[in-house]
Write a structure and sequence with these properties.
The protein is α+β, with helices and mostly antiparallel strands and about 450 residues long. It is built from 11 helices and 18 strands. It folds into 2 domains: about 140 residues, Creatine Amidinohydrolase, Chain A, domain 1, CATH 3.40.350; about 240 residues, Alpha-Beta Complex (Creatine Amidinohydrolase). Helices cover about 40% and strands about 20% of the residues. Strands 4-3-2-1-5-6 form a 6-stranded mixed sheet, covered by helices on one side. Helix 3 links the parallel strand 3 and strand 4.
Length: about 450
């Protein structure tokens, strides 16, 4: 391993992760593993790039130096970011799997027991087939989850990085709630969220914030589409700040008027669910225990809104297309997995269909301690209620025209400013010319 002090974590953190991976490899009688999942590459080496749609892999032999296969353009990320010393890049016109196979042969692994992540988003079936048909002397075995076993629990270093992400999450959410006003567009709210997150030190998240208003809150995983928020409506926000690819997420709700009776009740159920489940969660409790408690509080009837998903999921390292680690572990009924210190979850007691046509949410991201759990956030959970917005008068015009008019207003203002600058510049040149002529005479 190349020793360096400029990675996300200290070298001993990566040495521990690699050592634990090799212990699991030995238990499964694997001579090497091929790791292709972007989150797992980041976890093991600190490698990251937005170019992960091209094949990339870390090969970890049981008793030899790891090496990476990347597109030539992405090789610079290995040298700039990671401890990995050996790379085998392939050109855009080359065959990535052929480079992988050639490298496995080069390092004496062609006839070994090799694990690979069969369920990785970024190791598609056609490439897996090519590996099987080309590397005929090896025994290829599915080892999906072998890295995720280590990612389930976060170290103290990871918890600190997630605290940095939480600063960005809170900044974005506060800005988004402040921006919620009658007459603004969902786009404008989203812009305020993103700007605040990035100014607070946040980095590009795996998913941009979810911002919906009024009836659009009933559309799953929708976000801004230019809709104008109307007086009396509510706005649903879900924001995940990111730092060094680690995420923390939060749901909140703004009401631009007076909440309905069932909205008030939904708020109280969500707050109760969060309070009670956080009092329950500690090492030794099962994920099913936690899910059952949240679900029992949130379940009333359809008019009160329904929790139609799992009640929480693991969260940490993420690349697009999702910010969660729910495929590693989720809070779901019947799962007897025991919670452990260092696990982190986004707990989501949200309500779909309040009053039949509204989605509301309050959520929290927590980490498990030796005797309980703690939130990454200090932010108020109650709905943000802006009664004065119910009386605001807004233009009755289509969204496209409204946005266009705002753009035109800004363009006009810029044109006027540019005209003034041009006039001043022309006047200055004229004055300079007159001055020169005066001196010449």
């Amino acid at each position: 391993m190349r020793q360096r002090d400029d990675m996300t974590f200290p070298m001993e953190e990566y040495e521990r992760r690699l050592g634990e991976l090799r212990m699991r490899m030995a238990e499964r009688l694997l001579d090497a593993v091929i790791i292709t999942d972007p989150e797992n590459l980041m976890y093991l080496t600190d490698y990251q790039t937005t170019g992960y749609s091209f094949f990339q892999a870390l090969v970890v032999p049981l008793d030899d130096k790891p090496f990476m296969i990347t597109r030539t353009m992405e090789e610079s990320n290995v040298h700039a970011r990671t401890w990995v010393e050996i790379t085998r890049p392939y050109p855009d016109t080359g065959d990535a799997i052929q480079m992988l196979v050639s490298s496995l042969k080069e390092f004496g692994l062609a006839n070994k027991y090799i694990g690979y992540e069969r369920n990785s988003y970024f190791f598609p079936a056609y490439q897996q087939d090519a590996l099987h048909t080309t590397l005929t002397g090896a025994k290829l075995l599915d080892c999906f989850g072998i890295v995720e076993c280590g990612r389930r629990t976060k170290s103290k270093h990871e918890i600190e990085i997630m605290r940095r992400a939480a600063i960005a999450t809170e900044a974005g959410m506060k800005a988004g709630l402040e921006a919620c006003k009658a007459g603004v567009t969902e786009n404008e709210i989203g812009a305020e969220v993103c700007a605040a997150m990035f100014r607070a030190g946040g980095e590009p998240p795996a998913v941009l914030p979810y911002v919906t208003s009024g009836p659009r809150t009933m559309i799953g995983h929708a976000t801004w589409e230019g809709r104008v928020v109307k007086p009396g409506e509510h706005v649903f926000l879900e924001v995940a700040g990111c730092y060094r690819r680690y995420h923390t997420a939060m749901m909140r709700t703004a009401v631009l008027g007076e909440p309905t009776e069932l909205m008030w009740k939904a708020q109280e159920r969500m707050k109760e669910a969060l309070e009670r489940v956080k009092a329950l969660i500690r090492p030794g409790v099962t994920v099913s225990d936690a899910d059952n408690l949240v679900r029992s509080i949130m379940t009333v009837d359809d008019a009160h809104g329904k929790l139609i998903t799992r009640s929480g999921y693991s969260i940490g390292i993420a690349f697009p297309p999702s910010w969660d680690e729910g495929y590693i572990l989720s809070l779901m009924h019947g799962d007897k997995t025991v919670l452990r210190e260092g696990m982190t979850f986004h707990i989501i007691p949200w309500a779909w269909g309040v009053d039949g046509d509204k989605t509301c949410g309050i959520s929290d991201t927590i980490y498990i301690t030796s005797d309980g759990c703690k939130s990454f956030f200090d932010m108020e959970q109650d709905f943000t209620v802006k009664r004065e917005e119910a009386k605001r008068e807004i233009p009755d015009e289509p969204v496209i025209e409204l946005l266009a008019s705002r753009h035109d207003d800004k363009s006009d203002a810029k044109a006027k400013s540019d005209h003034k600058k041009d006039h001043k510049h022309s006047q200055k040149q004229s004055n300079q010319k007159n001055s020169k002529e005066s001196r010449a005479s």
